[in-house]
């Protein structure tokens, strides 16, 4: 089996690292939104998983049933976080496409095969 060109591989890894940093920075400026309770609660989350806004319809404020509002907020936050994670996975997932990480198996770096 031919020996991989380590210099070329290092350049690929460095470019991938730069692309990932740029993608992570871009994710800070993207947002997703999710709602629960038929739109009674809406939550907005950035691509870097920060909750940026929570809107609660005044109709959702029932002093007789505060647990319902809490559950609705929780459901909206969890759905917004799931959507933001999906967005991040989509943006970051394509960055390793051209790099054969399997060729790095003997290097044993963190997160790499052979670690």
Describe this structure as you would to a colleague.
By secondary structure, the protein is an alpha+beta fold. The chain has a single domain (about 5-95), classed as Ybab, Chain: A (2-Layer Sandwich). The chain has 2 helices and 3 strands, in the order αβββα. It is rod-shaped. Mean pLDDT is about 80; it is low at about 100-115.
Structure characteristics:
single chain, 115 residues, alpha+beta, Ybab, Chain: A, three-stranded antiparallel β-sheet, rod-shaped, disordered C terminus
Quick recap:
By secondary structure, the chain is an alpha+beta fold. 43% of the residues lie in helices and 16% in strands. It contains two helices and three strands.
Tell me the name of the CATH class.
Answer: Alpha Beta
CATH superfamily: Nucleoid-associated protein YbaB-like domain
The overall strand count is 3
Q: For the terminal residues, how far apart are their CA atoms?
A: 21 Å
Computed structural class: alpha+beta
SSE arrangement:
Layout: H1 6-27, E1 31-36, E2 41-46, E3 51-56, H2 66-93
Antiparallel strand pairs: 1-2, 2-3
Helix pairs in contact: 1-2
């Amino acid at each position: 089996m031919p020996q991989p060109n380590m210099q070329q591989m290092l350049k690929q890894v460095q470019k991938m690292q730069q692309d990932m940093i740029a993608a992570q920075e871009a994710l800070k400026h993207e947002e997703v939104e999710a709602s629960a309770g038929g739109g009674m609660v809406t939550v907005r989350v950035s691509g870097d998983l920060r909750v940026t806004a929570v809107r609660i319809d005044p109709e959702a404020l029932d002093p007789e049933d505060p647990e319902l509002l809490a559950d609705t907020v929780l459901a909206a936050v969890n759905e917004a976080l799931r959507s933001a994670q999906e967005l991040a996975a989509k943006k970051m997932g394509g960055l390793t496409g051209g790099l054969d990480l399997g060729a790095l198996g003997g290097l044993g770096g963190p997160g790499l095969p052979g670690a």
